[in-house]
Amino acid sequence: MELVSVFRVIDLLGVLCNAIIGGSIARTLKFDPVGFAVLAIMSALAGGMLRDILLAAGPPVALIDPAYLITALAGAAFVFVLHVEGRPWRWALAAMDAVCLGAWAATGTVKALGLGHGPLTAIMLGLITAVGGGMLRDIAIGRVPAIFGGNTLYATAALLASLAVLATPAELRPTVGMIIATVVGAAITLLARWRRWQLPQP
Amino acid sequence: MELVSVFRVIDLLGVLCNAIIGGSIARTLKFDPVGFAVLAIMSALAGGMLRDILLAAGPPVALIDPAYLITALAGAAFVFVLHVEGRPWRWALAAMDAVCLGAWAATGTVKALGLGHGPLTAIMLGLITAVGGGMLRDIAIGRVPAIFGGNTLYATAALLASLAVLATPAELRPTVGMIIATVVGAAITLLARWRRWQLPQP
Amino acid sequence: MELVSVFRVIDLLGVLCNAIIGGSIARTLKFDPVGFAVLAIMSALAGGMLRDILLAAGPPVALIDPAYLITALAGAAFVFVLHVEGRPWRWALAAMDAVCLGAWAATGTVKALGLGHGPLTAIMLGLITAVGGGMLRDIAIGRVPAIFGGNTLYATAALLASLAVLATPAELRPTVGMIIATVVGAAITLLARWRRWQLPQP
């Protein structure tokens, strides 16, 4: 399997995983199928859409490539039909989510660098790709976004994943950089969740 | 009158109607004229603006063509000055709203297909055009968007209107397709409202 | 110093000031550093980003020019580290905010006119530049945006600043127009704050 395909698979795994998270929230809020679909799409695709809108390089890939919408809707349908619960399930979801957090941060950073933007812009877009969808979903359901405080280093993990990409030599970024970023992002997210690490408050 | 003009009239009727709905909500929340204007513009124009942003085909038509902003502001001013109420008024508004729901879903779908996008993308953009503005308005005032659940098949009607456009042969889409979609969307919206149909919850 | 530089300085002062306002809100909500950064960026940069997205003329300048992000993050860091309070501080912040409100409204209007858009579109974009960021920040933290009502002519001051630009002869707009608009916007904002002027409610 080519490397490009590997990242597409990771990317779509992230979409599936975040769609399931969005659908699970829709379930606790007793939404109907439309609510499931919208929350799944927001959680899974809105971060990448916002990145593509800001990069102004054509319509968002999540809207053009049908695999993204189909995967997000499949995740929503899965949670709508099956009512999975319990600790092992939640840990599996958290692990998948942690893996794709770093991968998404890396995708955003690599894409911005590839379009000729500077490092600060690239970090911003990595962060938006990784945490923008969850933030917009939280706002849509009237919750203060989890990343604003009291959570477990979610944005910090994305930031470090993005920095890992920048620290990688340019020619290795879309390969080695992506892998390192994914590992870094996943490790920090899971460690922080396990040890209940939090950022200091003022 | 040319057909293009007919759709522009339906489109602007939809803008007026949704601006009035937005203004009515601003009235119940005791907003000032700025709040009336913003809620009217969100209800009436934000769906189409979001569609045009996502399609990345130039600035949103609702921002460029002054008729849209003027119509939306006229709707806001109308509700600000006159305090219309009562069952007949609410039904007239609901009927107009139902008509333009299907028309907007069709507009979004036709526009996306015209730019060469696939059917799934086109359906998404039809839905965003039809229900995106109301969703953003609800979020802006801290309400959980009505389309997420407990409402009456609003997004479903838009979905079927969009599918009706896709089912129409390509060369008839901007004419016959638009008409069928508008009728389908309006019929389902009004039937659902009358019979209190809802989608099942998980 | 060239005039272009003068406006860049005013623009960045506005970014700093609004970042400090965003950070101060993050402090009252007990957010962590991520929350401080996001609220500062939203308050300071989201209005201009929304303007640039709607104008569809390339990626938002606030994302490309590192000075904007750095200034916004500096404002957030300042409030995170130092806990400044008291009447003189609040008045200094209000004065700076008032100055940049008019300047931002003028920037948005001038930019839209420069891209060939009509006066109504230009006014809309002036308003979005001036008050869009604060509105999005309020929505993100679950507050009804202050500009919707009960506040003190904030959007009205931006509207008059924008109209002042339009009333200026075209060749003087980027210079004299900007100055008049800034003065008009600041004067009305501060007068309204001092005299507690409000718009009428229906």
What features would you describe in this structure?
The structure is a homotrimer of 202-residue chains. By secondary structure, chain A is an all-alpha fold. Chain A contains 8 helices and no strands. In chain A, α5 (87-114) packs across α7 and α6 packs antiparallel against α7. The model of chain A has no long low-confidence stretch (mean pLDDT 90). Chains A and B meet through α2 and α4 of A and α2 and α6 of B.
Structural class by sheet pairing and helices of chain A: mainly alpha
Number of domains of chain A: 1
Oligomer class: homotrimer
Largest interface: A-B, 31 and 27 residues
N-C termini distance of chain A: 48 Å
**Gyration radius over CA of chain A:** 16 Å
Order of helices and strands of chain A: HHHHHHHH
Q: Tell me what portion of residues of chain A adopts beta-strand conformation.
A: under 5%
Mean pLDDT of chain A: 90
- Low-pLDDT stretches of chain A are none
In total, the number of strands of chain A is 0
- The DSSP helix count of chain A reads 8
- Helix content range of chain A: over 70%
Which overall shape of chain A is indicated by the principal axes computed on the Cα atoms?
globular
Q: Can you summarize the main beta sheet of chain A?
A: none
